[in-house]
Amino acid sequence: MSITIDSAGRLVVPKSVRDAMGLRPGMPVDVTYVDGHIEIEYAPLRARVDTGSPLPRLVPEDDVAPIDDAAVRSALESTRR
How far apart are CA 24 and CA 19, in angstroms? Predict the structure, then answer.
């Protein structure tokens, strides 16, 4: 897939790629140059550790969409061999 950089240095990520990655307007991403190509990745999620309950838990500092049991199950299954 070929795209063009405009005079301001911007490029448009094609809709099919945005959809495949789940990218939405305003979503932060990291862009790096590695071994002759550009990589676009999700920006790391900022979070803190809450130790105020019996077990520590990771709490995001930004708004994130909640995940349900089905999403967790799917993620686990996709990493199993």
Answer: 8
Spatial separation of the C-alpha atoms in residues 63 and 76, rounded to whole Å: 23
Burial per residue of 18-55, b for 16 or more beta-carbon CB atoms within 10 angstroms, e otherwise: eeeeeeeeeeeeeeeeeeeeeeeeeeeeeeeeeeeeee
Query: Tens digit of pLDDT for each residue in 28-67?
Result: 899 999 999 999 998 888 899 999 989 999 999 988 878 8
| 59 occurs within a structural domain | yes
- What is the token pair recorded at 47? 């979070």
H helices present in the chain, as ranges = 15-21, 69-79
In a domain, 21, yes or no: no
Q: What is the pTM assigned to this prediction?
A: 0.56
Q: How many domains does the chain have?
A: 1
Q: What is the CA radius of gyration of the chain?
A: 17
